[in-house]
Amino acid sequence: MIFCFKERQKSSSAVARWPARRRGRGCQPALRRRGRRWGRCVAAVSPLCRDMGDDLAWEGDSLLQSEKEFHDAAKRNDTARMEELIRRGVDIKAKNNAERTALHWAAGAGSVDAVRLLLEHDVPVDDEDSFGMNALLLSAWFGHLRVLQILVNAGAKIKHVNRNGRNLLHCAAQRGHIQVMEFIMEDLEDMCVDERDKMDRTAFHLAAEYGQLEVVEFLIRLGCSHSAKDKEENTALHLAAKNGHLSVLEKIIDVGVDFDEKNSEGLTALHLAAEGGHSHCVKLLVEVGADVNAQTQKKMNCLHYAALHGYEEIARILMDAGIHTDALNHQNASAMHIAVLQNFPAMVKLLISAECDLDIPDNRQQTSLHIAAEHGRQDIAEMILIAGVNLKLTDKQGKTSLDVAARGNHIILVDMIIKADRFYKWKKDNLNSDSGSWVAKHLTFKQDHRLETQHIRSVMWRLATKYLKPGEWKKLAHNWKFTDDHIRAIEQQWTGTKSYREHGHRMLLIWLHGVITAGENPIKGLYEGLVGIGRRDLAESIRKKANADSTSPRKCTAM
Question: Boundaries of each Death domain copy (predicted)?
Answer without folding.
Answer: 472-546
